[in-house]
Amino acid sequence: MKIxxxxxxxxxxxxxxxxxxxxxxxSVFKEPVAGYLNWNAESASFTSSVMLAMFVLGIIFGGxxxxxxxxxxxxxxxxxxxxxxxxCTAFVTGSIPYLVYITYxxxxxxxxxxxxxxxxxxxxxxxxxxxxFASGMIVCAFGLSLVVFAPMAKYMLKNLGVPNTxxxxxxxxxxxxxxxxxxxxxxxxxxxxxGYNSVQPAQPAQGANHKRQYSPKEIIRTKQFxxxxxxxxxxxxxxxxxxxxxxxxxxxxxLTDGLAVLGVALTGVSNAAGRLTxxxxxxxIGRKSAMISIAVxxxxxxxxxxxxxxxxxxxxxxxxxxxxxxxxSVYSAMTADSFGTKYGGxxxxxxxxxxxxSALVFPVISNKLTxxxxxxxxxxxxxxxxxxxxxxxxMLKVPGKTEKKPSRTEEEKGVLKNKxx
Length: 421
Known about the structure:
By secondary structure, this protein is mostly helical.
């Protein structure tokens, strides 16, 4: 197998992730699509929930598929789903508006999840020496998508109309992602970059090259898996509670319409910055320290949100977005450190169940608590979940440092038996 330039593979993965970040943009499409299809706003809003659920399922199934088939085939299939789903949305008519759930929500959502997981898993295998940095770079591109495509989509929706906008996005994503997916592949078995050795000086990398490669069936029998999944679940509620109501809540808290719109772009920048810097910092200070720092930042910002207005409100939103992005990258790296990279796609997909549960449960809780218009209870809950997350992270084991020596696999037992003969 010819060894490719790993920087080229990272770049291709970043471009795909940049396009896949469309998942966070339904808030931009919602009102124009609802108006075009004569669709009520509540039903149109549900498209985001459908897509988010399919995103998590795409991560799980895409992760399992890439472990068996390789990342190129999965990324190619996911790219086709994203482009096709977006393009087909252009042909939905007002007579059956619910087809948007299928085209944008199910088809595109599954595609986004598949390419998200396959590209991350591949890049982590190419960068065992800089896993946190590489994970941060690729998911940073995912977060930056909103910054570029949100204003572009607003302009296109206004000047070209809903059908043409989806057709252009779908066709463009299809071509770009399919081409980039041809560069995605796994390194050869036992690959090590030049100058890399198995003895790692930094705490986060300890265990990153461990011999034990846990399968999905094995990780669900470990305490470490449930701590990771629940840690992610309880770290993210603040973002999922606030994201859908940012514009309306921002204007109620003293932001002008212009600042509120600018704030949407700034949350995208903060999200991307968190994805890039937190994982990189975790290579230096340790995964646990980085994960706890994220939870503390979100906790403090959530409490300040109770009284925050104007620029202070905007700053808190940016901090929560920063923590959200940082969690996405550092939990991915911690999963690879804990369970190896051989089955990394499926394993992180299972950890991401915490993401999906958090995204579906806490907005519903918040909506029931904010019927009077006050978000105080929601912010208190968001802060409280961060405390739970910190406790769970403190219980995590640092791979290669505190975890016990794993039991021998069946293969190892077979080798020993043959030696005895």
